[in-house]
Amino acid sequence: MNGDQGNGKLQAFTARTSNLKVIALDCDGVLFDSKEANVRFYSHIMEKIGGPAVRADQHEYIHMYPVRESLRYLTGAEGRQFDLAMEYLKTIDFGPFHGYLTCEPGLVSFLQLASTHFKTALATNRTVSTMELLRQFNLAEYFHLVVSASDVSNPKPHPETMEKILAVFDVLPGDVLYIGDSRVDETLAKATGVHFASYKNPSLEAELHITHFQELDCLFPDHCQK
Q1: E-strand spans in the chain?
Q2: Rounded to whole angstroms, how far apart are CA atoms 217 and 226?
Q3: How far apart are CA 212 and CA 137, in angstroms?
Q4: Which end of the chain is more exposed for a tag (fewer CB within 10 A), N or C?
Q5: DSSP-derived secondary structure letter, 154
Q6: How far is Cα 106 from Cα 153, in angstroms, rounded to an integer?
Q7: Cα 173 from Cα 189, distance rounded (Å)
Q8: Which residues contact 148 (CB under 8 A, 6 or more apart)?
Q9: For the CA atoms of the chain, what is the radius of gyration?
Q10: 3-state secondary structure of 176
Q11: Is the pLDDT of residue 3 over 50?
């Protein structure tokens, strides 16, 4: 367990979420370690359009935001380079970049339990690659709902993504636990009032900070570690 929280904090969190009905997760950084894949993907696009190389200080942004916003950020503004990038994007095969993704430890076991005990949702700023990615890693079956940036008018951190999850499952914010790893996720949780657990990012303001999915075993009483 994360060193900054003891059993008391975990027990308090478990008590607050005793009426939980939905578990929602971010994709990049939560389901997968995807930073290398993202950097390679955007570096490939920028090279093809003759744009500037992706800098180290830009990595965090492109990890959090949808592809359109990321390309606007990398090209400086909407203009010729941005238009070239968006046109080239239509031709890309995402498959080779998925090879640089790795599932987070304990993810599949957690999703198996979560999808059995609760409704499960994916809340991601990925776009058209989302379902292909889930199928490639055999994760699609564990989600009752997938909301990508392609499914909303306003992607995260705008509340629309979570509002859609609340509406589809007909639940209140207090019925939902959202697991994310970025400021975008923190902002989304605050804006919608859902419970928030930070994954591998101790700098976020969250009810719980975890470094491994096993730390959430107490959401499933029959699997809670004694």
Answers
A1: 22-25, 32-33, 102-103, 119-123, 145-147, 176-180, 195-199, 208-210
A2: 10
A3: 19
A4: C
A5: S
A6: 33
A7: 9
A8: 122, 124, 125, 126, 127, 128, 130
A9: 18
A10: strand
A11: no
